[in-house]
Design a protein that fits this description.
Structural class: alpha/beta
Order of helices and strands: EHEEHHEHEHEHEEHEHEHEHEEHHH
Number of helices: 13
Radius of gyration: 21 Å
CATH class of the largest domain: Alpha Beta
CATH architecture of the largest domain: 3-Layer(aba) Sandwich
CATH superfamily of the largest domain: Glycogen Phosphorylase B
Number of domains: 2
Length: 384
């Protein structure tokens, strides 16, 4: 089966979760005897290790005009001739789209005109919100304006009838978008729990000494909340280690935390195992349940303290995930109770064991089943 995986930043390992998703899919498809290719809007910063077709010469992060064109392209979302030429050249059996800035939802219509079934995976709120987060710049919730965001969403969504199947990593994300894909089948495929690339994994200290955060240094990820509690936790013998990059980097370097910068590959594994527990203090509605970062902490055998936002509500203490409140007092109270009290051993015992790649195979099988269904007759009725 020839599968064209479409994503704004392709399978670029230097970017984020959607890119990791595409890279993992491409690798799994290749290992399964299929023929994957990637269509990326922007040039990759690191070698994705898979055949990649690039639409634009510049990256929106480096070129202001490219950023403006992205926003205009969202509103226009036409089935551009260049997209049609790419489909004719690659001749895929399935077009599987992910994030679409720089590409546009018109690719769904281009695929329909070419007789190619389209599958779409939701990763965030791009179809509803230009900032993709449904939050204001200060991290507070933002409700889409019917006059501004609403017009943009209707333009983006006008080609959704061409999408046969919609995938999301949580029930929450499907529910938020259910009004956009009325004719498509919908399926939750949760991100897989994959083993780390190191063995054996050293167990965490008892009692714990280090609480770790890894991810984007942004307000919506709750980084400012974590910085606020770091000094209090240190007084109780719990240090905070932070890895990642983003707008709040200067605040992080000035705080009472251990900042190690951006990590990747082997360095990421070393970071995870250097901490005794992870924390995901998100203030936005996390799209996936669980997101990759929770899966990584689980794979390292570490419990995770997490807010109950979006897809995070769909994981429980039985998965080694302990809920925390979205306040400094709540974070400190729960952290001390779990990491310094009798709940620690119970939390540690609840982390799911990862012995092989069985969950990765489950994840790939689920996607292949969607592709097979998408290549069948066009559904004549709305899904249940």
């Amino acid at each position: 089966m020839r599968v064209l995986l479409v994503n704004s930043h392709g399978a670029d390992p230097a970017y984020g979760g959607a890119e990791r998703y595409v890279a993992d899919l491409a690798r799994g498809l290749l290992n399964g005897g299929h023929e994957p290719a990637v269509l990326s809007a922007f040039p990759p910063r690191e070698d994705p290790g898979v055949e990649t077709i690039v639409l634009h010469e510049s990256d929106w992060r480096d070129a202001r005009m490219r950023r403006v064109r992205n926003h205009v392209g969202d509103v226009v979302s036409a089935p551009w001739p260049g997209i049609g030429r790419t489909l004719r050249r690659t001749r895929p059996d399935i077009v599987h789209t992910s994030n679409l800035p720089g590409i546009g939802s018109g690719i769904w219509e281009a695929a329909r005109r070419a007789g190619i079934p389209a599958v779409h995976t939701l990763h965030d709120y791009h179809l509803l919100c230009p900032r993709t987060t449904l939050t204001r710049r200060d991290g507070g919730p933002c409700h889409p304006s019917p006059l501004l965001c609403g017009v943009r969403t209707r333009r983006l969504a006008r080609w959704t009838p061409a999408v046969r199947h919609v995938i999301a990593g949580s029930e929450h994300l499907l529910r938020v978008h259910e009004h956009l894909f009325g004719g498509a089948s919908r399926r939750v495929i949760r991100l897989p729990l994959a083993p780390l690339n190191v063995s054996p994994i050293d167990p965490p200290h008892s009692p714990p000494r280090k609480l770790g955060y890894i991810g984007a240094l942004t307000t919506t990820k709750g980084v400012e909340l974590l910085l606020e509690v770091a000094a209090d936790l240190a007084q109780h013998g719990i240090g905070v280690r932070i890895a990642g990059d983003g707008p709040l980097r200067e605040h992080v370097t000035a705080a009472a935390v251990e900042y190690v910068g951006r990590v990747g590959a082997r360095a990421k594994t070393e970071f995870l195992t250097s901490c005794d527990a992870g924390i995901v203090p998100s203030l936005w509605e996390e799209p996936s349940g669980p997101p990759y970062v929770v899966r990584e902490w689980q794979a390292a055998g570490r419990p995770v303290l997490a807010t109950r936002r979006g897809g995070l509500t769909e994981i429980t203490a039985e998965d080694g995930v302990i809920p925390i409140q979205e306040s400094a007092a709540g974070v400190v109270e729960t952290t001390l109770k779990v990491l310094r009290g009798p709940d620690w051993r119970r939390a540690l015992a609840s982390v799911p064991a990862v012995e092989d790649d069985a969950d990765v195979r489950r994840w790939m099988d689920a996607h292949e089943a969607v592709y097979t269904a998408a290549r069948g007759p066009t559904p004549s009725a709305a899904p249940t």
